[in-house]
Amino acid sequence: MNIPFASSDLKHNYTLPKNHIAYFIHLFVSSIPESIIVSESHSILNHDPQLLLKMILFAYHRDTFSGKEIVILNEDNLPMMCLSQQTDISYEEFNAFRKNEYYSDLIKQVFILLNLLLQEHPNLQDEEIPELLKWNHAIENYDKALYEKMSQDYDQIIQKQVDIAIEKEQV
Length: 171
Description:
Blueprint lengths: L1 E2 L10 E2 L5 H10 L3 H4 L11 H13 L5 H10 L1 H7 L6 H9 L1 H20 L8 H4 L2 H7 L2 H27 L1
Helix pairs in contact: 1-3, 3-7, 4-5, 4-6, 7-10
């Protein structure tokens, strides 16, 4: 993914390596049909839900669960800046997105399906990437038992940390 990248400190194009998790996240989330990404509650958001989803998934893969830390990651991490296209988003918006029941469930589902694909194909080759990292492929080919196990793990590990981080930031 070659995204034009310019800031006052850094003026050049940054190309994400094709084996980088941010690249995989971008491809996978971009393949999700708009009818799934956009819910009735998307109108409360100031930014595109697809953009928020990409950024949150990347943050979770970096064990970053606090909305404030996601903002910092977006300011300091080149792959995150590529995903966000240097869009400034407040921690309150990240937290509102994650607290929304529809989007919370979607984040979980996308996180699990993406991880299942990456586990099934640990050595992705460039020519395989576009076909394998597609929403329809993931939905049609996932192992239901493994999905359920990962869903429980997600609730116990990731969602628990997200809830703690959001609660701390509400104070």
